[in-house]
Every structure is written in structure tokens, then in C-alpha cells.
Structure prediction request, 429 residues.
Amino acid sequence: MKLSIIGTGYVGLVTGTCFAEVGHHVICVDNDAAKVKLLQAGGIPIYEPGLEELVKKNVAAGRLKFTASTAEGVQNSDVIFIAVPTPPQPDGAVDLSYIERVARDIAAAMTSYKIVVDKSTVPVKTGEKVAETIKRYCAAKVEFDVVSNPEFLREGFAVDDLMKPDRVVIGVSSPRPAAAMREIYTPFNAPIIVTDINSAELIKHAANSFLALKISYINAVANICEAAGANVQEVAHGIGLDDRIGRRFLNAGIGFGGSCFPKDLSAFIKISEQIGYKFELLKEVQRINADQMDRFVKKITDTLWVLKDKKIGVLGLAFKQNTDDVRSSPAIDLCHRLLKEGATLRVHDPKAMDKAKSLLPNVTYVDDMNAVAEGCDAIVVATEWDEFKQLDLARAKKALTHPIIFDGRNLFDPAEMEKLGWIYKSVGR
Ligand code: UGA
Prediction:
């Protein structure tokens, strides 16, 4: 099918590329001319495993194109996906101005029947507003349908999640667009759920909030484990084997971050309130998440006492492994907290150092993770990168003034670390 994707951020670029990979003809549109130029020249603006190869392959096959013109995208496709940012506002509500702008631009360019699909994460009832806007601004007075098709990909695993989705959710207000949407997704061999638009929009917020709730739940349990002398990983394993619960997203640590969970929780709380329900449970999820960072910082200050003039090596800056994304990263937050206490930092991340530099200008960036500990008083693990498990512990131990490690992501085994002579502090163990 002929598709266009407006917005080439994480969701738009990966979605467009994967649609091309299964045989659709895709035009990716972005109003950032420099980004479009970069993509046209074969560059990729984000790090995402497997993406670069797929983009190159599909551009070469003539199925994937980039343009800065919305009109070009709209006029050369049957289905138009909106994948622009929906950033948070100070009061927790979502800024929908990019969506509104794009809806108007699409309306102005439409000259025949189109299906306009919202892929950005939006509060319930946004689809209704998009439809109203297109109707109002549609110059040619042609027919159209609005669809909600939320995205469930995780950064760092985006290509895999898109190529092998657990489910595809399609929210429609009439049967007409459902057939085309099914056709687009048939090659992905996933269960397709067709709902009304409001339900589809709610599925996204409810899913992300539930996953965040799961993380806060295990973090709360981790705190009980610490007080009781239990091990949260064993508890997570024991409860996770119940397939009504499941083991995934039960990793205790310094809390969740990123561009989705914190924003979506606030937005879900806000929209719930606006339509008459106070979602106190989700406020507690937020509170536990914030508290988790406070507790970890306290663990560090309880052990190192005064941080002023202490040097700390930090492993990890990205908000999680396999990504260079540092938006709302707990690791960056932790660095700011340590700097505020007067510590100096040597930091390393396998992919996120470039993107961290504007947020953390006054730290030393170290290219080799095994050199981070040099001259430091302690090491902190802030992101769950698998490769940190291969840290040269003998070298780090020699380089530190005392062998102290604060593991905010439970990457190492406490008994093993103690045997090796480390003072080892992790979360919930
Ligand atoms: C999340 C959802 O997992 C996706 O399904 C969704 O599509 C996406 O948001 C979105 O709305 O676009 P993402 O933000 O990429 O994906 O990252 P996650 O893998 O969910 O991790 C989020 C945060 O939770 C990270 O900071 C991670 O370190 C933390 N986390 C995750 C934990 O602390 N413990 C866990 O067990 C899992």
C-alpha cells in the first residue's frame, strides 16, 4: 500500500522503515529540513539496533523515501500516519499542538479520500478533535476517516517489537478504514484488535501506566526486602512464574524514566481527572518512583558520608540499555543529584555520551568503561547495559581508593562481589 508517516522520530522512522520492509511504499515526512537531508544522504539521526541496515535496504529498493513536504506525502499515499511528538506541559497535560498543526496541514493537502491514522500517544478523545479539525480545514471537501493505532515499541528493541508485535490495536469509528488497516498489518502476523477510537487511545495509556505500576510495585517490594533481609530478584522470580503476573518489568532499580512512562502517567492522571476520576493509584506509582531515587542517593551518602570533593565513576547515562536516548533518564537525574552534593564525576555510556553532553557539561566523559574507576572513591551503575556485567572488576578495584560499588540496576551478584572483596550495595538484596 502507499503510506506516509508524518514525523520521523523514534516511532515514525522505525514504523515507516518496517512498513517498507514488508513491502509497502512509504514516504517519511519531517519538517526538520536538516534531518530530512541527513536521512536522504543515508544518515540515521538515532541509535536503534538493526535500523540503519533496514533503512538502507528499503531506500535502495525504492520503497522508502524522505521529504520535508507534507503535501507530497499526503498526495502520494492512501493512508497517512501521524507520529509527531506529544510533549508534556508543566501541569502534566499533553501538548497536542503538533498533532493539531499536522491535522491542518493534512487537511489542506487532501484532494481525495484518505485514512488519517494517529500513532502518537495521545489522551482519550484526541481522535474526535483530529476529525473535527480535518473537517474544518479540508480545502477540497473530500471524505476521510480518522483511526487510532497506538504504538507499543520499546526503544532499543524497536525494530524487533515492530516486526513481531504482541498485538495491533486499530480504533475506528466506521468499518470503512478497518479493511485497509488490516491489509497494512497482515504481513506482521500479529493478533489484530479492532475497537472504537476512544478505547484504542485508552489502551495505550492504560498499558504504559500498568507497566510503570509493575516497576513501582517491585521497587516497593525491594524496599521491604531490604528491611526484611530478603532478595527481590528471588521474590520477582517466584511471583513472575505465575503467568497471571509474569516476570517481565519486575526488575527493581533506581526507577523508570524515558520519554514515555513519566509523561504518559502524568497525562493519564490528568485526562482521568478532566473526565471525572481521580486516579490516586497512579499518583502513588509516581511517588514510589521518585522515592526510589532518593533512597539510592541516601545509600550512597550513608556509605561515602560527605560527597564534596569525592570522585565517583558513573556507568550509564541512557534511560535504559540499547539506546542513546537520555530524555528523563534516571541516570542523568542521579548524576545531577551527585553533582549537587559536591561530587565530581567520571562517566561512561556505550551510546549516550554525545546526547548527554548538553545536559551534563561539567563531568569527565570516559570512552573506556574499564577506565571509569580511575582515581574514584566509588562506582555507581545507573543504566542496565548488559556489557557492564563484563566490567574488569580486578582493574576497577585497583583503580578505586576503596572497592565500593553502588549497583542501581542489580547487574552483579552480591555474594560473588563480597567474595571478591567489594563493598557492594544494590537494590532490594
Ligand atoms: C515504553 C513501553 O515499554 C513501550 O511498550 C511503549 O511503546 C513505549 O514506552 C512508548 O510509549 O512509546 P520505553 O520507554 O522505550 O517503552 O522503555 P521501557 O523498556 O518500557 O523502559 C522504561 C523505563 O523503565 C526505563 O527507564 C527502564 O530502565 C525502566 N525499567 C523497565 C525498570 O526500571 N524495570 C523494569 O523491569 C523494566
Remarks:
- The mean pLDDT is 97.
- Residues 287-425 form a domain with the Rossmann fold fold (CATH 3.40.50.720).
- The chain has 16 helices and 14 strands.
- The chain has three domains: 2-190, 205-261+268-281, 287-425.
